[in-house]
Superfamily I DNA/RNA helicase
Amino acid sequence: MAESEKQIEQKRVDKVVQEISDHIHRVATDYTEARAEMKRVQQNYSANTSVNYFEVDDRIETSAELQQQRALASRLIENEQILRRQLDTFHELEKSPYFGRIDIQDPGEAESERLYIGTASFTDEDQNFLVYDWRAPISSIYYNGTLGKVAYETPAGIQQTDLKKKRQFLIQNGEITSMFDTNETVGDEMLQHVLGEQNDDTMQNIVSTIQREQNDIIRDTKSDLLVVQGVAGSGKTSAILQRIAFLLYHSRDELEADQIILFSPNRLFSHYISDVLPSLGERNMRQVTLAEFVNQRLQGLTVESIFDRYERANDLSESQQQVQQFKESEAFMTAVHDYSQTLTPEHFNFTHILFNGDIFFNKRDIETIYQSLPNMQPAERFLQTKNKLIKQLKKRIDIETDAQWVAEEIDQLSDEDYRTLLGNKERGRFQQVDDEIHYIARKIITKRLRIVYDAIYNNYFLDTYAQYADFLANVDHPEISDSAWQAQLTAYQKGLEYHKTSLDDVAPLLYLRDILTGSGQNRRMQHLFVDEMQDYSVAQLLYFHHAFPKAKMTYLGDSEQALYSDVEAPDEILQKLKDAFHVNKARLIRLTKSYRSTYPITTFAKSILPDGDQIQAFNREGELPKIVVRYDEDEAYTAVDQCINHALKTNGTVAILTKNMAEAQAVYQHLHRDRDITLLKDTDRTLPKGVFVLPIYLAKGLEFDSVIAWNVSQENFPSSRDVGILYTIASRAMHELALISVGPVTKLISENIPNDVMRIEHAFTN
Ligand SMILES: Nc1ncnc2c1ncn2[C@@H]1O[C@H](COP(=O)(O)OP(=O)(O)OP(=O)(O)O)[C@@H](O)[C@H]1O
């Protein structure tokens, strides 16, 4: 491109940067003032809260004033936060104000218009757009359109225009480092540049190079269920994070970041993606792992983690696997639903409510209450039972006010405690002294019986675990023998004795509890995202849908990376979910191009898969993956050590990936004395720099500059069920991949991968 063109563009960049700097200056002044004002209000507030209240009138006045100050403080805090976020955004813009330019000519216009696109909008003093936000309707042309006639969606309907030019920029610290004109959606040159860079601790936003299919995912606002099936490294996670940023922009008035929830595969991942939204000027959505979600809902019970389950998968007998599959199916959740609808009162597992070890409400009486109510939905009937119990509790509180122990307790109250119990009521203003005493007595008893109230409120008078056991004992279990079914029931009950439960019982158990008690649903959540969906059972996904009934769903996954189950075809998955959720607008988007790895690594990884041909490798150069075969374990560790040395010459992060935790520990034990290496566990939240070792299930969704796969021998990867694991390991590597085998290499490699896509350091002997 002519140098003068670049100079012209650089001049514009300089001008815009200058305007942004001036603006930052102004906002910074506002920010300093906002902070000062907030400090003033806060000081005032704390001075007032330390006032000694001796006179009741003072107290009332002060509390009104305090409330006003509190409201003012929270407004000021919000204002300060907005200014803080604006400052952060403008500082980013100052370094790199935009990444794209489109020249468009609207119908009937004599001249074309030039628009620049960046991570946020920026206008000059006269409200002219110097930079358009990448999420603005007009910006979609940049991602979707090739030159010529194009259409784009606006709130007012579809608009037509003529796209005359599309230009991409790489601007760093206010300097254009490269610039290309392109007719493609977003040209490869820019992608080459960003993908060739070294891995950061956290994921980067991809707004400057979003691809057309990714853009479809990001800008979809119509689907109730959007399923994205994308090959490893195709940008699924990236796309959903930009999608969240897009939705927050698109529905700014109705949607808050905390109304979006994302299920992520592990804690390392949660941290890994945590910078993307803030880098786009948005707050993070809620993030949760399956373990965190279920543990929060089943407090007091230790739920087997998905990782524990993976670790013991090989120990399961065929009939245990059948049981597991049945419990994870839609049919099983339907059976739970049917059971809950036909359950008669005498089959409810009500339980006593105890107080100080004695029965306070007898389960027979609770059953009688339930029995006495007209037939209606279980949740409604349960709620009415609850209300009746609370009424009875109140009556009991009234009766108890005359008890001797209460009178004694009142006598022993200090003046201060007495006043605290009176609260807002004014001493001496009761009609009679007895009324005041009665009031205090009620307060004391209510406090004492709080535990009973909580038990009612939290539905503790239904033993949901026993109820679920009753369901298990009665449900039809076609294709599973009675003895196998009985064995699982015994195992469930035994687990309960130790306060433990297996993962496959969790979704049906919670579902049953929620239907019977009318609890567990969050209607505020507007969007539900599940990454690595292939690692969740249909039963779990159904439970999420039940738990967040108003949320639109976006599920992403790669059926080939199934670690915990068999591979399923994307269309089948969509159909299955569509049927299960009863949604109208369901859409499947496939991503087949892989961006993460070099061309040789993707070519190697896709050859592992039976239908890997559909994967397109991004054309980025790199070394061929290396297979190192050693027949002795010690020699294999030495080989790992050599591979690490080689990798560290050019790479910042080197991950040794193993099949399970035991192998990760063994590798760590052998290497940690002589080199700086970290063993990662499921409790870890951040990735260190340098060399680390971890089982593959903790590396889900992550990527590393260099990957060393530990022990890809036939013994360790014997069957076609291991394909998903091997593929997931290989596809974590961005720039370099080595695979170590102790003994003959798995046939998944030796029989499927052509010799010219890898380097072998030892001849195969199998
Ligand atoms: N359009 C893009 N522009 C720049 N980088 C991209 C783009 N799409 C994907 N990438 C990069 O490719 C890598 C893989 O992306 P991401 O992790 O989102 O893929 P994924 O499909 O979720 O992968 P996996 O299923 O293997 O975990 C990341 O480094 C991401 O930044």
